[in-house]
Amino acid sequence: MVDTEAERSIGVFDPSEIKLGGKKYYRYMGSLTVPPCTEGVFWTINKKIRSVSRAQVELLREAVHDHAEKNARPIQLLNRREIKLYRPKWKK
């Protein structure tokens, strides 16, 4: 187990360098999944399913200090929200 009280530098991370493995993604307006469940959050979900290792999940848990067994609320109704699929336009 990593000492959560100690800080360590992991360097600078540039999100634009993430290789998503696909150009298609879903987007919708929703809310946070944990209290206070604030609305007005844009969610972007990559269409291609990726996996992570157990070690990566543990590092994420430690980074957000979330030791709860359940960290998300149940699935919510759409309530007339639109879910849109974005994909690149093909060149002719």
UniProtKB/TrEMBL annotation:
Molecular functions (GO terms): carbonate dehydratase activity; zinc ion binding
Primary localization: plastid
Occurrences of domain Alpha-carbonic anhydrase (ranges): 1-87
One of the GO biological process terms: one-carbon metabolic process
Source domain of life: Eukaryota
One Pfam family from the record: Carb_anhydrase
Entry-linked Gene3D superfamilies: Alpha carbonic anhydrase
SUPFAM superfamilies per the UniProt record, alphabetical: Carbonic anhydrase
Localization annotation: Plastid, Chloroplast stroma
PROSITE patterns: ALPHA_CA_2 (PS51144)
GO cellular component: chloroplast stroma
Function according to Swiss-Prot or TrEMBL: Reversible hydration of carbon dioxide.
Similarity field: Belongs to the alpha-class carbonic anhydrase family.
Protein name, entry field: Bifunctional monodehydroascorbate reductase and carbonic anhydrase nectarin-3-like
